[in-house]
Amino acid sequence: MDKRLLIVEDDPGLQSQMRWCFSDNIEVTVASDRESALTSLRRFEPQVVTLDLGLPPDPGGATEGFALLEDIVRLAPTTKVVVVTGREDRENAVKAIGMGASDFYQKPLDGDILTFVVNRAFRLAELELENRELAQNRNGTSIKGIVAASPQMLSLCRMVEKVAPADVTTLIIGETGTGKELLARAIHDMSHRADKTFSAINCAAIPENLLESELFGYEKGAFTGATQSKKGKKGKIEMANGGTLFLDEIGDMPMALQAKLLRFLQERVIDRVGSVNPVQVDVRVVCATHRNVEDLVASGEFREDLYYRISEITLDVPSVRERDGDAMVIAQSLLKSLGKQLDRPQLSFTEDAAQAIQSYSWPGNVREMINKIKRATIMAEGKRVCASDLQLRTDQATLDGNVLNLRQVREEAERTAINHALQTSNYNMAQAARLLGITRPTLYNLTDKYKIETSPVVSDV
Ligand SMILES: Nc1ncnc2c1ncn2[C@@H]1O[C@H](COP(=O)(O)OP(=O)(O)OP(=O)(O)O)[C@@H](O)[C@H]1O
Q: What are the entry keywords (predicted)?
């Protein structure tokens, strides 16, 4: 920091004495009255001002000095003002501090003490500047894996940073692909449990009859006849002991298991399947769902008491279309990382591609972006990804002169919807079927009929 000091002093003798107190690394300017002091303040922007309160036209009083102090605090609030008063003038010194001066110095002049006080003011100004710069630079987020620039997402990230160290049960809600699991991991990584296990289970992906033993484990001999039961096995809850348990798609948890989970959350003990000896477990629970849990409670599909237990804190992750400017920022970052991964590091978006990215509604959020940009990275010719490489067309086939009949329109619509559901659900057939409102076998029939790929083009990012 270039140090600049303004000395406001009307006595020419004192002015030059004060000048001599400061080493060469401080640029010193002197002013004798309020007007010239304000001119210097504007021109040199000193970090520190020493201000003699007794200025003309009231050199015996302090009115002009106080008026100037008020001006400085108003015009340059970060400037540190050291008020210089007479020996017996404690009262005015205290008043000046109350008005915003950072320190005071009492005459007669003692070079060592004045230098000490002024250097301390410079140090304070420097620390405050560093602090402001740090605060300003926090326009991104330090959460690993999260690319965000929108105020909506940045404020959510700040919340995550606050929630993480507190051992509260947290519910993360938001549309599919918005980053709920990423945030759950961030909560774990930023908590005091970070060096212990993060154990995740997707309640929608595991058949109901297996979910209980997956979660709670089972005791030796629990399932008569089953070979694996000879040994017994710890469930995900026990495996997370000391760490964090992430229950994804909690809204899909079967009713019977909801009661058992509630008991665990209340008493922090679990009963393995086939066991009568409860096991004490210390885990932090983070849940996520893309479903509206309040609606599920209203329709009787989710226990109200469990809902209150899991949502001590609720984090609502905005969809990509609700984040101002994030679609483009995330797309650029994905193009860079996928380009590197797929050996096409020079790729950039054309203007029409950028336009398409910003106007598309991204119903599958970041996961859909990954799939679309991965495809475009592979398909792009030359060094530019254009809108057609992204395949963001939303226009439906209509009965114009180019369409044969209603069956063709219907098939086209079905094909588009299925592709969309598969990409949105990251090719999870059960989830895609649910999105489409059909059964899994029907979805398989349709993907066979339309020869639609049931797995992504290349492996995940
Ligand atoms: N802000 C982001 N920046 C970069 N990548 C992101 C961001 N948000 C999510 N992702 C990536 O998008 C993909 C989907 O994220 P994640 O699995 O956390 O979403 P989700 O909300 O849990 O989805 P679902 O509800 O379908 O389980 C992951 O590969 C994740 O790394």
A: ATP-binding, Nucleotide-binding, Phosphoprotein, Transcription, Transcription regulation
Closest CA to ligand 1's atom 2: 146
Measure the CA angle with vertex 409, ends 404 and 414; round to 5°: 145
Distance 181 CA to ligand 1 centre (A): 6
CB-count exposure of residue 137 (10 Å: 0-12, 13-18, 19+): exposed
| H/E run at residue 170 | strand 170-173
Q: How confident is the model at residue 140 (pLDDT cuts 50, 70, 90)?
A: low
The pLDDT value given to residue 458:
47
Distance 157 CA to ligand 1 centre (A): 14
Give the residue, out of 146, 156, 181, with the most ligand 1 atoms within 8 A of its beta carbon, to mutate for a pocket test: 181
Q: Please, which pLDDT band fits residue 117 given cuts at 50, 70 and 90?
A: very high
> pTM value?
0.61
Q: Are residues 117 and 202 in the same domain?
A: no
103 and 84 in contact (C-beta within 8 Å)?
no
Residue 350 belongs to domain with CATH number? 1.10.8.60
Residue 321: inside a domain, yes or no?
no
The ligand 1 atom nearest the CA atom of 326:
1
Domain limit, last residue, from 106, 136, 166: 136
| Residue 217 shares a structural domain with residue 341 | no
Residue whose Cα lies nearest atom 9 of ligand 1: it is 179
- The number of domains in the chain is 4
Q: What are phi and psi of 29, to 5 degrees?
A: -120, 145
Check: CB of residue 61 under 8 Å from CB of residue 86: no
Predicted local confidence at residue 448, as pLDDT: 87
Domain around 378:
329-398
Please give the Cα distance from 195 to 188 (Å, whole number).
9
Q: Which of 80-84, 267-271, 273-277: highest mean pLDDT?
A: 80-84
Centre of ligand 1 from the C-alpha of residue 288, in Å: 12
Same domain? 84 vs 21: yes
Whole-number Å distance, alpha carbon 176 to ligand 1 midpoint, is 8
In this structure, are 22 and 123 located in the same domain?
yes
Task: Flag whether 86 is in a domain.
Answer: yes
**pLDDT > 90 in the chain, percent:** 54
pLDDT for position 324: 86
- Ligand 1, atom nearest to 289 Cα: 25
- CB–CB of 230/221 below 8 Å? yes
Asked whether residue 24 is domain-assigned, the answer is yes
8 A C-beta contact, residue 150 and residue 326: yes
Q: Is the ipTM of this complex over 0.95?
A: yes
Residue 328's identity, in one-letter code, is M
Q: Measured between alpha carbons, how far is 358 from 370 in angstroms, rounded to an integer?
A: 15
pLDDT at 420 over 90: no
Asked which of 263, 290, 316 is the last residue of a domain, the reply is 316
